[in-house]
Amino acid sequence: xxxxxxxxxxxxxxxxxxxxxxxxxxxxxxxxxxxxxxxxxxxxxxxxxxxxxxxxxxxxxxxxxxxxxxxxxxxxxxxxxxxxxxxxxxxxxxxxxxxxxxxxxxxxxxxxxxxxxxxxx
Length: 121
Fold this sequence. Notes:
This protein is mainly α and 121 residues long. The protein has one domain: Helix Hairpins. Helices cover 82% and strands 0% of the residues. It has 4 helices and no strands. It has helices spanning 2-6, 8-40, 43-49, 59-112. Helix 2 runs antiparallel to helix 4 (59-112). It is rod-shaped. The mean pLDDT is 88.
């Protein structure tokens, strides 16, 4: 374990994990907010959120509501996928953070451990 604590590639690996986790989490947050804004403007979402009963009178209105409902379902699916992406980003972020802390701990432990003295007989 000690050689890994002193290897520079481990530090770079954990910093890369930190950066990747931050980027994934930031991207997921941005995408979730944008999708939520689009969803608020969707007619089917407005009807569903207010529990309105709508009885369209023409075929065009029925098709318009069907298209809005399909778009709403796609946006909800996109939001769920974005939540999973954000969660993955947080897991990767935590692994990078944990790795850096473990590496620092092992380095300090190595610095403060008493050196082995060789005795000659």
